[in-house]
Amino acid sequence: MKIALMDSGIGLLAAAAAVRRLVPEAELVLSSDPDGMPWGPRDTADLTERSLAVAEAAAAHRPDALIVACNTASVHTLPALRARFEPDLPVIGTVPAIKPAAAGGGPIAIWATPATTGSPYQRGLIAEFAGGVEVTEVPCWGLADAVQAADEDAVARAVAAAAALTPPDVRAVVLGCTHYELVAERIRAAVQRPGLPPLVLHGSAGAVAAQALRRTGRAAGARTGAAAYRGAVRVILSGREAALPPAALAYAEGRLLAQGSPALGH
C-alpha cells in the first residue's frame, strides 16, 4: 500500500504520521514545494499550476491515494486536482474541523493563516456547521513560516500573539492550517486558562488519514512496536527527490517517519 501526501512544506508531516500509525507498513510519498513557498499569497491560477506540479511528482510513484495535506490547496485547487487524477487516483482534501468543534458547543476559536481568516470559504464553513455557536476567527501571523523553519523563538512569538487574540473562555480551538498541528501542545499551553475545563484541539490529520484508507478499501493495522514502522518514505522537494528537510526532524512526526525508512536518503 502506498499513500502520497502533498503540501507547500512540512505541514504534511502530521497527516503522514497519522497514516503511519494506522498502517505502519504503508509506503509514503511526501511531495512538497519549498521553492514555491508560501502558497497563501498566490492567486488561484498560479497556485493551481504549482499544486498540479507537486501532485504530478507524487503521482509518478503510483500511489493508491493522494492526500492534499494543505488547507490552502484544498480550498483553491481541489477541483483541478480531482479532474486531473480521479477516478484512477483518489484525491482527499483537508477541511478545517469546524463541524466537530462546533458539535461540542462553544465558544470556539479558529486559528488560521491571515489569508484564510475571514475568507468566504471559512465563513461558509462557519455558517454551515457552527450556527448558534460563538466563533472567533484568529489570524496567526507568521506561525506557519515559523513552524516550517522550526524556529522555536518565532513559533513562541507567533503562538503568543494568536493566543492574545483568542477569548479566554474558548472551549476548543480549530487548527486551520496543517502546519499548526506540529505545535499543537504549544498552542494548548498558550490558550488554556486556569480553572477552565481542558481545552480541546481539533486538527484534520487523523480524519484525512482515515479517509484515505477508506478510499483505498484498506483497513488500519495495529501497532506492534517500533519494528512495525517499516514502510519506506520517499521525499520530493519541488520535483527533486531528497531526504527529509532538517526542520522536519525537529518535530515528533518527522522523527517518527524517519524510523526504519530506507528510501529517505534516495
From TrEMBL:
Q: Which Pfam families match?
A: Asp_Glu_race
Q: Which GO terms describe its biological process?
A: peptidoglycan biosynthetic process
Q: Which UniProt keywords apply?
A: Isomerase
Where on the tree of life does the source sit, at the highest rank? Bacteria
Q: What SUPFAM superfamilies does the record point to?
A: Aspartate/glutamate racemase
Any keyword Transcription? no
Q: Name one GO molecular function term.
A: glutamate racemase activity
The answer to whether keyword Isomerase applies is yes
Please give the name of this protein. Glutamate racemase
What species does this protein belong to? Streptomyces longispororuber
